[in-house]
Amino acid sequence: MTKERLYIFDTTLRDGAQTAGIEFSVEDKISICRLLEDLGVDYIEGGYPGANPVDTEFFETKRTRRAKFTAFGMTKRAGRSAANDPGVQGLINSQAEAVCFVAKAWDHQITTALEISLEDNLDSLRDSVAATVAADKEALIDCEHFFDGFKANPDYALSCVRAALDAGARWVVLCDTNGGTMPSEVSDIVARVLTVAPGDHLGIHAHDDTGQAVANTLAAVQAGVRQVQGTLNGIGERCGNANLITLIPTLALKPVFADRFDTGISADSLSRLTQFSRAFDDRLNRAPLKQSPYVGASAFATKAGIHASALLKDFSSYEHVPPESVGNERSIMVSQQAGKSNLLTALARHGIELAKDDPRLEKLLATVKERESRGYSYDGADASFAVLAHEVLGTLPSYFDVDTYRASVERRHNAQGEEITVTEAVVKIRVEGELLMSVAEGNGPVNALDLALRKDLGKYSSRIEDLELVDFKVRILDGGTGAVTRVLVESRDGTGERWYTIGVSPNIIDASFEALYESITYKLLKTEAL
Fold first, then answer.
1. Segment 85-110, tens digit of pLDDT
2. What's the number of CA atoms in the CB half-sphere (13 Å) around residue 113?
3. Looking at 265, 289, 314, which one is the last position of a domain?
4. 302: CB partners within 8 A, 6+ apart
5. Where is the Pyruvate carboxyltransferase domain (predicted)?
6. Of 250, 265, 280, which marks where a domain is finished?
7. For 374-507, where are the alpha helices, taking DSSP H only?
């Protein structure tokens, strides 16, 4: 049976740029565009040329090889022609191959926000599409607030769809702009739209304000639309947009969709989906969300001992898709609920093979549970578990010993009379009996300790040159001034691998130093065979 084609339209560089705290530079956009090209989406909406210097520069050159390079902008202003509208001409004269116009589809907004007549709005829509088609570019219309507009005035909302198609638009996209529509409403309204427009000319653009952007998108596909819009990792204004990293594998792997549709995403790209998602987060300089569907570090994790035992016999019963199909991996977490099955799987992940009746396994299990009773948690600190396992099993190399360390914070006035805070750390270590002392100043005591500890590891220094601390989290486990503090440190190296180490102590500096020490030790373990 021939499958129907679904088209993936990415709006990360435009809609995603409206995310609070995210500002894309031209270089960011170029890098992300290449990532999207490698993923294999059909359209890349790059922004609004003419609206700001970054987008204008980005559209001076065609940035895609395969995907349709798409510009976004407003339809022409009422009272002037498309030929005399600078905004429309800027879109048409850019290097974009396609132009996506946003047009109001809610009568209330047209008369109150735009303060024009409903017919003037339709004229602007028609003329903008016609001018784009005449310039030999593909035209798309985003019908803004379409679902709210349809509920208020279905006849007018449908007239916007007809006008766009009659003028030559390739796609008319139905937008749930405020993210408040329910999946059942999406299905019903799309069915009504199909009475005036073919599904292979309709798209869906859903926002996530009720947490249902993915569900609404899937409902629209099942109802008949054939273009899907969304962003990488679901970024976007307010609560974000439909998450393409969730939608793509659902469409490609779930039989209800996969048996009917072809997304154009290759099996190779799908198998690297986790890599794409995390590379994008790296570009944004933020930690990946562990519980993201399909690609999160916890997406294929199990904690309960009884599940872990069963999982070793029958993975398919506990995983809705094979983790490798999206480039992720199975994770049997180590915790107070852990049994031997969990430990064996976790050990194997670090290249440690033990028999189930090995007495050292009982010792390791007891150690893990005792440490967790004191505040440690190895659910999210797999690197610390690897270090602990090697230590308990007697296979941890003796890289270096810490004699002493000290961190001091001093507030003083500099030569200009300005009040400044200076943090200094001193660390003394021994490598094969040789005493090495390092001093470093940093942005706070943890940063200073990190710099000092890595400053001179003797013969091991070259093996940690690409190591860097990327995140630092503190949690107070008990209240009061004598509280126990848990520190989680995230590190990465030049290979792109990230790992987490943990430290626990009533003293936040001690806890931090423990996590830093284990991060370096884990890095040395990684490079042991190199």
1. 999 999 999 999 999 999 999 999 99
2. 11
3. 265
4. 308, 311, 318, 331, 332, 333
5. 6-271
6. 265
7. 382-393, 445-455
Burial class of residue 149, CB neighbours in 10 A (0-12, 13-18, 19+):
buried
Residue 125 near residue 159, CB atoms below 8 Å: no
Instruction: Tally the domains of the chain.
Output: 2
Tell me the CATH number at 46: 3.20.20.70
Q: Is residue 351 part of a domain?
A: no
> Cα–Cα–Cα angle for 230, 233, 236, nearest 5°?
60
Question: Considering Cα of 435, then 439, then 444, then 450, what sign does the dihedral take?
Answer: negative
Looking up residue 504, the CATH number of its domain turns out to be: 3.30.160.270
Band the pLDDT of 496: cuts 50, 70, 90.
confident
Domain residues for the domain of 498 are 401-526
Q: pTM of the entire structure?
A: 0.75
**In-domain check, residue 505:** yes
Contact, 299 vs 328, CB < 8 A?
A: yes
Question: Which tokens hold the place of 170?
Answer: 């390739």
Tokens of 496: 């792109």
Contacts of residue 207, defined as CB under 8 A and 6 or more positions apart, other chains included, come to: 176, 177, 178, 179, 213, 236, 237, 238, 239, 240, 241, 242
Instruction: Give the list of residues 6+ apart from residue 222 with CB closer than 8 angstroms, or none.
Output: 187, 256
Closest CA to 527 of 465, 468, 451: 465
H helices of 224-339, in order, are 244-253, 255-258, 267-270, 273-284, 305-313
Of the given ranges (104-118, 172-186, 270-284), which has the lowest mean pLDDT? 270-284
User: Collapsing DSSP states into helix, strand and coil, what is residue 47?
Assistant: strand
CA distances (Å), 453 to each of 389, 406, 418, 516, in order? 23, 11, 30, 8
Extract the tokens encoding 275: 């890599």
Position 322 in a domain? no
- How many Cα atoms within 13 Å fall on the side-chain side of residue 526? 21
DSSP 8-state symbol, 378: -
